[in-house]
Amino acid sequence: MRRSAVVAVVTASLALGGGAGAAAWGTQQRQAADGRHDAAVARVDAARGAARDDHEARTALVATADVARATDLLDDARGALDAAVAQARQTLDDSAGQVGDDDAPRGALAAQLEAAEQVASSASPARARALTADVAGAEQAVRDAVAAEQARVAAAQAAARAARGRAAPSAAPDPGRGATSARCTTTYSGPSFYTSVPTEGGDGSNGRLPASALTAVSWTADSRGTPFYLRSDAAAALERLNAAFRAALGHDLALDLTYRDLDTQVAMRAALGSVAAVPGTSSHGTGLAIDVPELPCDYGWDSAARAWLVAHGPAYGWVSPAWARQAGSNPEYWHYEYRG
Ligand SMILES: [Zn+2]
Q: Measured between alpha carbons, how far is 313 from 332 in angstroms, rounded to an integer?
């Protein structure tokens, strides 16, 4: 563009130097000026067109990204709500007849669930998150009521024993599966989470492991009958570990949770906060972690089972990670990981 303006000026200069008449010079100058004007107009039009196209392209790009982000947020929030509702529904069923005379917490949870289920499919992300928190809160109240009732029954039994003048039974740990006394109840009081089945169409990423990557352990399943899946090499190593554990302790290793899919991890994080791993980072999502039951007498810090697992687990590739140790950053006596 700049070049044509220069040519026009040179043309005008030549016309001057050539001694042409004033009329001819004027015509040439006008033609040159007209040319410059037309070129300038064309440049402005082109620039305007480019700016408009650019603006439209940017606007379209931003709008597409916004929609994708909003859709992701909505899916995450509704997914967490669905998981919280399913889990609270289970707690409601399980707690029937377990809360003593005061059934109000269960009534409140039932009402909360009904409200959540009515709007679950149409809730905005913020509303879905608020409902998730409400459901989790109501569920926790039911769990607290169940725990209070259990404590009341245990105290009443102890009082009855004392009244009969008999010594209370020994609190010696009984490592048998499912054998728990009132003094050896679970240390977990949060909402229930269950082990996961392989993820259909899973891409192999954390929490999305397909059936082809996983193997169920042979000797046990969870309370709902779901097999305990682990990455196949970790499962094979745990089979060998369990054979040695059983030989040493007289019973199989009990499991509470192994593979956990991403949806469950999202729901756990929503319900438990920072004690649950950030979704997509849990070793349960890679099928390389087990949780044994949170029963302190059976598997707690000072239990024979833990002593055996810490001493002999590494020979089978299974370890108690440093962060989960008693002096670690997030003590979890029930959590072990496969390191191969
Ligand atoms: Zn764990």
A: 16
- 314 within some domain: yes
Centroid of ligand 1 to alpha carbon of 284 (angstroms): 7
Report how far ligand 1's centroid is from the alpha carbon of 242 (Å). 18
Distance 304 CA to ligand 1 centre (A): 20
For 107-151, give the DSSP string: HHHHHHHHHHHHHTTT--HHHHHHHHHHHHHHHHHHHHHHHHHHH
pLDDT tens by residue, 295-332: 999 999 999 999 999 999 999 999 999 999 999 999 99
Report CA(217)–ligand 1 centroid distance (Å). 17
What CATH code is carried by the domain that includes residue 276? 3.30.1380.10
Q: Is residue 299 part of a domain?
A: yes
Q: What secondary structure does DSSP assign to 66-87, as a single string? A: HHHHHHHHHHHHHHHHHHHHHH
